[in-house]
Amino acid sequence: MRLLDNAREAMRRDRVFGFVAENRYPFIQGRHAIDHDSVDLSHGTVLYVENVTVSFDGFKALNDLTLYIDAGELRCIIGPNGAGKTTMMDVITGKTRPDTGKVYFGQHMDLTRMTEYEIATAGIGRKFQKPTVFPWHSVFENLELAMRTDKQVWPTLFAKLSGAQRDRIEEVMVLIGLQEQSRLQAAYLSHGQKQWLEIGMLLMQDPHLLLVDEPVAGMTHQEMDKTAELLMGLAGKHSVVVVEHDMDFVRSIANKVTVLHEGHVLAEGSMQSVQTDPRVIEVYLGE
Question: In whole angstroms, what is the distance from residue 11 CA to residue 24 CA?
Fold first, then answer.
């Protein structure tokens, strides 16, 4: 029954985890074999979004959007509803194909030519606003399921964790602050704890880039503070893009902020420069 439940979870279309499909990396893009460790960050940039346009029935959700994310950077993306934030993440993760423009992961990976699974496996993790964990598995088991290993049927049924794999799970549990809940089923975690667990599940894939959508929605102030500490701690080893509406939270973590409006970048810079920009005040902060 538990295996059946896992299979049903794996068929869900509202998220992309590299661990819910069969193990296929290294995969082929064109004539080049590419795996998780082949991302070329030699120029210091992990993500290139250049002149991207996406239209839905004549409405331009993205309008000539250009955005660059540095390796190890923590970037906050803000903007009013309909600014294009979700569509931007959909394009990066392969859920939506752009009408025009280029999207590269590192120097050579063309994300517009890759499947959602290939993108996730290459090292881009996305956390949706609503936490999506395996509710009737423990915290430890959720992290174990997320581990970057061979997920074909027989290896999954009979594989045993190595000491190094157990150590990695323990390390991530400490990082997300859930070591004391390791044997607790995820269904009984608080909302904030479920958010941290999902971030931990993505970390088990050791992604180069994390896309985090409204991580503090519905959280207590204490949970928000802990989430800020967690995300800031991830920067450096990972690149982290946070889409968030709570401006107090953004101020607590932001070094660089990008403001989207009508599908393109309206302003970009420090939080101080952005929040005093008359254009940003007019279309977003003044709401």
Answer: 17
Is the distance from CB of 207 to CB of 146 less than 8 angstroms?
A: no
pLDDT, tens digit, 9 for 90 and up, residues 164-210: 899 999 999 999 999 999 999 999 999 999 999 999 999 999 999 99
How many CA atoms within 13 Å lie on the side-chain side of 77?
A: 28
| Cis ω for the linkage preceding 26 (within 30 of 0) | yes
Question: For residue 259, what are the β-bridge partners?
Answer: 78, 267
DSSP characters over 34-74: E-GGG---TTSEEEEEEEEEEEETTEEEEEEEEEEEETT-E
Closest CA to 214 of 132, 127, 95: 127
CATH of 12-285, picked from 3.40.50.300, 3.40.190.10, 3.90.180.10, 3.40.980.10, is 3.40.50.300
Whose structure tokens read 């959280």? Answer: 219
* Nearest alpha carbon to residue 237 among 181, 153, 175, 284: 175
- pTM, two decimals, is 0.83
**Structure-token pair, residue 186:** 């995820």
Residue 163: pLDDT over 70: yes
Give whole-number Cα distances, 48 to 68, 153, 277, in Å. 5, 36, 25
